[in-house]
Amino acid sequence: MLDHQKINAKCGTNYTAAQVSKAIDCPVSIKGIADRIMTDHAGSIRFDTMHKAFFIYAHGEWRKIEDIVIRSLIRSEIDNLQKEIRILTNAQIAGILPNFDPTPSIKKILTFQQNADDALRNKIFEALRIRSASMRVRGVSNEISDQVYDATR
């Protein structure tokens, strides 16, 4: 039985494998929030170093997106951190994380939510930029360049 199935059976919840995996694998931290966003948008968000901009893969092509979209994703992810504690607590009840202590995670989440100022969001934005640029598939930059060039003709 998979982790999410164990939790659902023991706690009467309806978590997906992706939700449980994200809660367990991505810690509550600046890098962890960037990883959560990358997990949620697996392969569809890239930072192109050549254009110094984020791109999203939609409708069969890479499209440039404004930084405000990324900042909105960051804000949303910070707002959703409370749900992660419920998943982790249920994982403890189901025996998947027997030594889980929710107190430090709850304190971190409250700190993130109370201090979700521009400085924190900028750090997460930078972590996401670095994370998505390092995960870039070879040739994506050229593909984006070709599409941008074609769009400007």
What is the string of SSEs from the N terminus onward? HHHEEEHHHHH
Task: Write down the domain tally.
Answer: 1
Q: What share of the residues lie within helices?
A: 55-70%
Q: Pick out the low-confidence regions.
A: 148-153
Class computed from helices, strands and strand pairing = mainly alpha
**Beta content:** 5-15%
Biggest sheet details: 3 strands, antiparallel
Number of H- or I-type helical stretches? 8
Give the overall shape, derived from the CA principal axes.
globular
- Straight-line distance between termini: 54 Å
Mean pLDDT: 80
Count of beta strands: 3
Give short descriptive properties of this protein.
single chain, 153 residues, mainly alpha, three-stranded antiparallel beta sheet, 64% helix, 10% strand, globular, disordered C terminus
Outline the structure in words:
This protein is mostly helical. It has one domain. A hairpin with a 4-residue loop joins strand 1 and strand 2. Helix 1 packs across helix 5.
Please write out the topology.
Blueprint: H1 3-11, H2 17-25, H3 30-40, E1 45-48, E2 53-58, E3 61-65, H4 67-79, H5 81-93, H6 102-114, H7 118-134, H8 140-152
Antiparallel strand pairs: 1-2, 2-3
Helix pairs in contact: 1-5, 2-5, 3-4, 3-7, 4-7, 5-6
Describe the structure in brief.
This protein is mostly helical and 153 residues long. It contains eight helices and three strands.
